[in-house]
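Justification of computing resources. Each target in the renewal requires a structure prediction run like the one illustrated here; the chain below, 278 residues long, is used simply to show the kind of job we budget for.
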Amino acid sequence: MMSLFFPLLFISVLCMNSFSEVQGKKWKGEGTTQNLESIVIGRCYEYIRLVNPAVGEKNCSQIWEAFKNAFISKDPCSILPKDYELFINLTFHMIPPNKSLFWENNQLLVNSFAARGRRYMSVGDTLFGFLADFLYWCGQADSPGLDYESCPTMAECENNAVDSFWRIASVTYAKHSSGVIQVLLNGSAEGGAYPQPGFFADYEIPNFQKDKISQVVIWVVDDIEGPDRDSCGTNSVKTLETRLKTLGFDVTCTDNYESVMFLLCLDYPDHSKCAFAS
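Resulting structure tokens:
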């Protein structure tokens, strides 16, 4: 009898552990980034002191409270962009004319090319975007704590804390972009350089202020070792060009813009695509 008891006990423990893991990890997405409060407040001071002191004084503790209160103690699938309005108001600053850089499917490249606002200012180079870039977060209904185990993905629910944040950030960024604006797209991306649906298509273009924008400059750049799936005047980029022109914007488009290619080729100096003419 004892010989059967221990195998059965072992199986029972395994089942309990598996059940516990399923219970603990409710969602499919990453859980809240550890030390979230310290990171957000630290980034706030880094931004106003080192990255872009021109924005002036900001109350970083108050900004954290506004950010946290947008989603804490709430159903993580019922967070709306408007919940972040106070946070946006507290972090808002003007975006310099001719410096806006929109993008799809190439965030790391955009971060490098923008150079933290020194060359261009992408949404991640604004104070509100800088504080949240690459972070994950969500709360739990009727609980003051953060969920460090898992957070919902867009596939699980549209109104999750992270995606709702980036919607209002994108809308704010687009509304206050002016002059010549740049759009950097990935010509090697599966599904096309201009994805629909997408943040650029759904939240940024509809909020462009036509009277403030003199030109839209599109750069379609392929990955160095990637395929050439999309180019100016073809496929999804043609759809984008047509949409912008129909809205009345002056549009130009360049494939494999040389300045961006120079940056990409730092990691592939011997690649055939990096043999620039002298």
